Amino acid sequence: MAFQFEVLQIDPSGARLGRLTTPHGVIETPAFMPVGTAAAIKGLPQATLEELGVQILLANTYHLFLRPGHELIRELGGLHKFMSWPHPILTDSGGYQVFSLSGLRQVTDDGVTFRSHLDGSEHFLSPEKAIEIEIALGADIIMVLDECIETPADHESASKAAARTLNWARRCRDYFATHGDAARQSLFGIVQGATHSDLRLANADQLVDLDFPGYAVGGLAVGEPHAVTCEITAEVTSRLPAEKPRYLMGVGRPEHLGDYILRGIDMMDCVLPTRSARHGYLFTHQGRLLIKNARYAKDPRPIDEQCKCPVCARYSRAYLRHLFLANEILASILNTHHNLYFYLDIMRQIREAIRLRHLARFCSDLQARLDNEPS
RNA sequence: GGACGGGUGGGUGAGUGGCUAAAACCAGCAGACUGUAAAUCUGCCGCUCCUUGCGGGCUACGGAGGUUCGAAUCCUCCCCCGUCCA
Fold first, then answer.
1. A49 vs A22: CA distance, rounded Å
2. Does residue A151 reach within 7 angstroms of strand B, measured from its CB?
3. Which positions of chain A have pLDDT values less than 70?
4. Residue A109 appears among annotated catalytic residues
5. CA-to-CA distance for A156 and A158, rounded, in angstroms?
6. Rounded Cα–Cα distance for residues A149 and A124 (Å)
7. Distance between alpha carbon A10 and the CA centroid of its chain, in Å?
């Protein structure tokens, strides 16, 4: 069986230790998935990602459809081969672009009409079209097209978006059933409903009826308070089948990863480590460090004295600050390397903490340390 | 020696009588970033005072004088830089 999800251990808190088997390898969960929108983690080559222990990458349907085109990637043997990443890949559907490109798109029940952010040309993405593209790309896990809306959203518009998302999920599932290959790819449904519990619960229940091999929670961490994100996440996971993987989309800050896992989440992805790195925002065990700050001009210490990453082993804050201010590409590379190591290391520690049954304590300790700034 | 052109805030460089503490860009300082329109974006960036306000005072467009209600902007002289002619 190409796809399999096993829950190896459930913490009293609700956190799960699992193993997700895909055609391109096994993913230990809870897992953090770095985002490589255009078939690249900005700043890091694949060999480095392997050294870092990246288990699975994200890529984006919308972006790859526009450039270089899904047919071209199919011709070249699929995304794994194209980008030389023989490990698991997940493609997002373009649902997030419905949200982030709000000025460049129009949504109807049929689908989304986008104005390309590259050249302004118009493109139509229906649920079926999204799946067609995702099949061509060939990722191990593919996502249904959903409508991600802004928060706060009133009950009526959240309800409409959730209903539309559910309808699209059905269409995606049906299209995949006739055109896809379940042995090769796994299609995940996405729960929407903004911050309204009743909508979230109903949407989750109906989505579960459609029987997807995995479920995602979308439309969170888009501006609402963290406590709300946690609350909604807990409510949704309580309705999702225990034997299937749960993916909280687009999160989060490092000090919050544990909170989601404590609420039954198995997979997460976020641009924060990679984007922040390019913007000079580094994560450390003592909190955030803005490398461009004048206070680091003569600082010979590594970014994070407790960090075991190759960047911290070798480079000083003073040098990294210089690279950043001098606009050297190396700044992005090294900063990204560090931040991704930091995230993946936290995930390793979280998995270990679940194994040792002290995740809750680990998470509160982590939160206290990270909510700070290094000396 | 002569003829032109030019000297503006840390830098480049607009501005040619009031709306100018002086555009824009860069540098500098600080902040933001959550399924990537992001190596991006935002704020500050002469000194000083306070009741922090589209607040007050001071200083400022090579120097010194002058014209004017008002000058970076006009006039006079001087200093410096560039190009050309002797």
1. 18
2. no
3. 1
4. no
5. 5
6. 18
7. 22
